[in-house]
Predict the 3D structure of the following.
Amino acid sequence: MANLNQSSESIAQPLTELPDKKYFTIGEVAKICQLKSHVLRYWEQVFPQLEPSKRRGRRYYQRADLELVLEIKSLLHDQGFTIQGAKAKLVQKSTPIEERSACSEQSKAVAVLQLIQQELQEFRSYIQTRF
């Protein structure tokens, strides 16, 4: 029984504490994230945000890449997203707040302009009937 508890603790720990390194190989990322290397290579093709640097034909993941892999794994395996849904979620998350607020401001501006247009049309018809 003690062996089972130790193995489950060692599995859970890497998910909460990432090693303090600048670069990780694909094998290290696969071990930390409990994934196969071919899954990581596939995700690189599917998720444009996941771009490890490549030198001499080897992939080197940085901490941000590792965190992204863990997030993708959570979306797909834990939260039940499809690949398309996970892609959309990541795009939504990566859209800066300024862009989202700019879209909101644009829609408000369009509403104000439509209101002004309506008031101008009413004023025009009022002028035409009075003069």
In short: DSSP finds six helices and three strands in the chain. Confidence is low (pLDDT under 50) at residues 1-15. Helices lie at 2-16, 26-33, 37-46, 63-78, 83-94, 97-130. The CA atoms of residues 97 and 103 lie 10 Å apart.
